[in-house]
Amino acid sequence: MCKQITKDMIVADILNVDPDIASILAANGMGCIFCFASQSESLEAACFVHGMDPDDILEQVNEYLQDKYEATC
Question: SS3 for 44?
Answer without folding.
Answer: helix
